Amino acid sequence: MTIKERYRAVTEWFTANMPVAETELHYGDHYQLLVAVILSAQCTDKRVNMVTPPLFEAYPTPADMAAAAVEDIFGYIKSVSYPNNKAANLKNMAVRLVEVYGSQVPDNMDDLLTLAGVGRKTANVMMSVAFGKQAMAVDTHVHRVSARLGLTRGAKTPLETERQLVAGFAGDILGTAHHWLILHGRYVCTARNPKCSDCGLAGVCKSAPKG
Questions:
Q1: pTM for this one?
Q2: pLDDT over 80 at 72, yes or no
Q3: I want to staple 30 with a disulfide (CB 3.0 to 4.6 A). Which of 44, 105, 117, 198 is the partner?
């Protein structure tokens, strides 16, 4: 199977079996999504969704977050991973949103990367989910699943994975493909003990047991 045929087979399977693929984070606007994605780094969406409702109630706008003390923000998010760093990042992110961007989340990579707590993955999530742009965010699930399936070859970094996936997926499905790979990695192609016997992609997967 050529790499082009593999991408086609994977796309056809997900289109038929996961026609709706979207973020599992709960949010009401671009600011809330940005906060949630920053909090989700090395943390489960389930945990993030538990802490964000009271956080958003306390700080419903970037201006409210910018005016808050870091230790007060910490109190709302202390159960997530790396709460000290994330509390400081949320404060500094909100300050810059207010002072530089008029409390509006920017819609491009360069500006997003100037915000505290925002790396390339988070920026790609925002461009794809919030603004409908063709972007491929690579987290540990996407990196692992794409390599196992054989969609990437020798990609050692998230950026290498991103570039290969952007080149491989045809048309305007990058944002959807991002969620396909995340959800597949979260529930089927898990890091430990992947459920290959239950996987509909086992027939085209380079890593699935054969025979």
A1: 0.90
A2: yes
A3: 105
